[in-house]
Write a structure and sequence with these properties.
heterodimer, A: about 140 residues, alpha+beta, OB fold (Dihydrolipoamide Acetyltransferase, E2P), 5-stranded mixed β-barrel, elongated, B: about 850 residues, 4 domains, globular, disordered C terminus
Amino acid sequence: MKKIHIFGLVIIAVAIGIIVSTAGDASTYVDFTKAKEMAQEGDNESIHVVGKLKKGAGGQIVEMQYQPEVDPNYFVFTLIDNQNVEQKVIYKNSKPQDFDKSEQVVVVGKMKDGTFSAEKILMKCPSKYENGKMETTEHTAAKS
Amino acid sequence: MIHSTIGSAGHLLVIIAFVTALVATFAYFKSGMAGGSVEDTLTWKRFARIVFYTHVAAVLGVVFSLYWIIGNHYFEYHYAWKNSSLSLPTGYTISSFWQDQEGSFLLWIFWNVVLGCVLIFTNRSWEAPVMTVFALVQAFLTSMILGVVIPGLAIKIGSTPFLLLKEVMPDLPVYKMDPNFIPKDGNGLNPLLQNYWMVIHPPTLFLGFATTLIPFSFAIAGLWTKKIQDWIRPALPWALFSAMILGVGILMGAYWAYETLNFGSYWNWDPVENSSIVPWLILVAAVHTMIIGRRNATALKTAFILTIATFILILYSTFMTRSGVLGNASVHSFTDLGLSGQLLIYLLTFTIVSVGLLIYRWKTLPSDEEEVSTYSQEFWIFIGATLLCLSGFQILATTSIPVYNKIAEAFGTVLNMALPADQIGHYNKFQLWFFSLIIALTGIGQYFWWKRVGKGNLQSLYNPLLIALLISAAVITLKGVKDIQYIVLLTTGIFAIVANGTILLNIIRGNYNLSGGAITHIGVALMLIGILFSSAYTKVVSINNSGLMISRSEEFTSNDNKENKENITLWLNKAEKMGDYMLTWRDVRVEPRHIPGYIPKSWVDIVENDFHAVALRDIIVDDKKYNSKGDTIEIFPENFYYEIEYREPSGKIFTLFPRVQINPRMGGIVSSPDIQRKIDKDLYTYVGMVTNPTAEPVWSKTENFTINLRDTFFVNDYVAILDNVVRTDSVEGVTLGAGDAAVKAIIRVLDKDKEFVITPSFVIRDRMVARKPEVSNDLGMRIQFQEINPQTGKFTFAINTTQRDFIVMKATEKPLINILWLGTFVLVIGFIMATVRRFKDFIKMRNKEALPAGQAKPKAKVQVV
């Protein structure tokens, strides 16, 4: 076997390793029901859930709580996923600017003791002057 | 009046540009095809050139038209209305141009014609085949801004920037009343992009994109005309130039993100960032294989593959960011303009044609007779290039996850894959090791290249290795680097600097022209070390120590409190301890246009929906008076700066001004950091949340207190004492006449650690009562002196309260980030030197070839037409 062949094999092996790892690390879009199942099965992987904020009759957001004077790093809200399942979400970071205006919210995280603990929040905000264009912004709970 | 002429002219010129690009492609193709007579070839070439020049003129006309529309504020045009406004300073009006997709395509088209002209002038012998590719690319690009609907088929080709507002939004109610309605002002440029980096970053990045076409065109031309090896010489300087510009463009974007966005970092692994770094990595690999491609057949074949791959990846990146496929995976991708089909055709055409041509010619490419030795320079450079490709592949494999979903969708299945939740961890797992190896190889490769290290004389590598190990050990101990992967990256980085530095010292004495490679490698090594420290050792300093924690449960305090406690709340004028600093939020400031620095917001009254403000007092900055009370001054109406005073343990005070932008027309509150730059670290501060500075405070219901002198009363949890009521001779804003009288109350309000004195006045003027309330922003309290009862001797005060002003802020320290920026400069210098050297090589060869044998003159400038 020539060196070039061994070299080629090594590269293919690394490439396969990359693909396997990508598939392994990739998160998934699920709904809250599935998220609960996963938590019960002890699956500790972070997942994405798409949903809308819970709103009252007047269109105001309900069940949202942020008291920076008490704790600027504690933000709670209720999200309704596409299957109309409600879920309390805790985000241990400051409330993202313009959160109230967002049409759609993607939370990344996992179920923990009956609440969804979000590590990251992605929001889609409508900007009324840009015919239907959605702007996405991203907020991450600090890691490091 | 609607200026319809300029738009029609622009649109017509786009069509002309598109048609001429197609004709030029055909004509250059005919000229490049072998078989025709010499005369035929020449005629076609002359014709093609004229057509291409017409194309150039048309493109310049299109650019001019769009600038004219934006620069003259023709808001009847959708593009001008959407992306610019009257208040935009001139510099940023330029950025409005490429704010939207059509303009950014136009920028790309513009660079391509500039580069095309440079190529025609510098390289007549390759003109026909190279310009065929160029013109074809131009045809595709101009088709993106064509904006033509094919009648009958209802297929829209391209999206033109020359649409009138009423053509885009015909349903606006205003057009029913006035069909000729023209908006008075535009929507404005996204305030985030109102930054000088956004004036130079997009043109640089698009120049980088555009220049990748040149090595690609030469590679295709080489395959086509069977000049299998000759294409490298003219292509190499351009490939180096492209790698430099693209690299600088990407880094400018990173620097802008660091300064302007509150990601807290210069790199966010955002799909848009990733899709531009991948072609860069492949391009750098291509450059290395091109350098050895004339000596080694395997490297030559790889050079073909990588040069083609670079350009295809640029197209893929364009497709990803502009087709809407990324959806909510990215912060700054464009939305779908209905161009995804066209973009896909563009991508597939070039992929199929170039890969097809490569396969077709594969058999005619040379092969190495004997296997390359492990001790040869080629071997090590080749491994380095391979690692760069693997690194790029790994980033691409993950970034393409949204694309997999779309492909699955096309086949009728649902994949529901999402990007990894911990992106940094995911990428680091591979990239850290790849780059440790790559940077080590730059040192080894240079030794094999210059020192002719080979079997049996590896010892010349021992010295740099030993020195590097010693330095690394010192740095690791001093800086307390503990994790093994960081130790490896640091050591290999230092080895690369020592090894390349030694080589540099050796060759710089001989011919400094040749030192580009070593300098570039040192730059990369410095950048990696800078990234290592500034990212891995970022320290959050705004840990909340106030004791105001919602819970002391283990969940909150575990992991050194890092998880949850990285933001602190600051109340106006109330000092708070943060790390070693005492922090006080002092004020909100605004940014005047012609006055240095920022002035307190209370000095001016901002005119709503305008960029002017009325001075409420004389504006004096640094002892210089700029305006008097009542003057109207220009400001940046969206920008508010939060004056945060930092007191160091030594007593030294500095102030940071993190910014918050309010732009209701963009539908948002956006915060940007301010950075205290020191040589060894940056202190990065941004406010995460504020009470809207443009909103009027919401006051609580009035509460009346009727009290005696020296009485204590409770307002909103504060203890307040009416200390005294005294006669006063002057009340601000009121002129007192002879028979008038005024008194003011002195009310002391006790906060936890501070006392405030509030002095509302009560005035009797012309037998009328006037009351002047006083507001304390610090307490969120307004007190009005309501009544004096002479019979009882009691005083009545009306008190309203509101939410006290607060901000939520975060601060981090980024150690040694300046090494990253230093490395960037070194990298650029290295690339420039390498480019110049390779370009000189090319010119020398070109001029030699241009002369018939035996007549070689050193200074000949004859060119073959």
